[in-house]
Please model this.
Amino acid sequence: MTLARTRISKAVIPAAGLGTRFLPATKATPKEMLPVVDKPAIQYVVEEAVAAGLSDVLMITGRNKRALEDHFDRNYELEEALTHKGDESRLAKVKESNDLATMHYVRQGDPRGLGHAVLCAEPHIGDQPFAVLLGDDLIDPRDPLLSRMIEVQERFGGSVVALMEVDPAQIHLYGSAAILPTDAEDTVRVTDLVEKPAAAEAPSSYAVIGRYVLDPAIFEVLKKTQPGRGGEIQLTDGLRELARDEGAGGPVHGVVFTGRRYDTGDRGDYLRAIVRLACEREDLGPDFRTWLRTYVKEELQD
Model:
């Protein structure tokens, strides 16, 4: 019999990174505010959390991240100017980010890895299960990954990670999971996790991508987790302890994702994400696709 569990309502979004791969654009602008078509990347992530039923969002920020708070706050002067012009369309777009969720912010201070960022959320989260969404991974809203992960957590308890099968030659870029099947086609039991292993040492080609639903037991585990790869406290290492020894934290499961994911942390993938999303927009797509076909045809002729 499935036990009644606390409904997840809180999301944590780590956003303290320096964005060095996008310098000089990120010298004075947070990487999370870089536009993907006409919305900053971070707004897509918050919208995903809200679509999954999460109404309380905590961002883990750092220095020079004030623009994130400003974006999800009211801009009275801009709203007044648009109202005066009668520009209802743009006014609605400006107000969208104000009303998405109840937003909270805490500074990481000394950035010591993703595990440390998650630890910074403990006073806000308390003893409830919660979601973690990494801003570099955009999940297409037509593929409700986070909602499915919450369903799995409500069924099994414990923690849930998002997994995606990747080329074995690329597994060193991710955490890699050892898995066992369950009775659900898209759900596996995670028995071990290794952060960024060499291809020959990876337990599988299933990579952990940037969505997690975590039992609050992760906090006590992370407090005892020693710095790992890169001298940082790795969330993967904490989850590995829960996967190997359930204890009070429950099991670790994985949802295998086969949908559309856009990696905005890589410059090439960031550009590809913009092209894909622009092509699919009703207001931009027809003209943009026509131009793109012509451009590609001309490039192939050169």
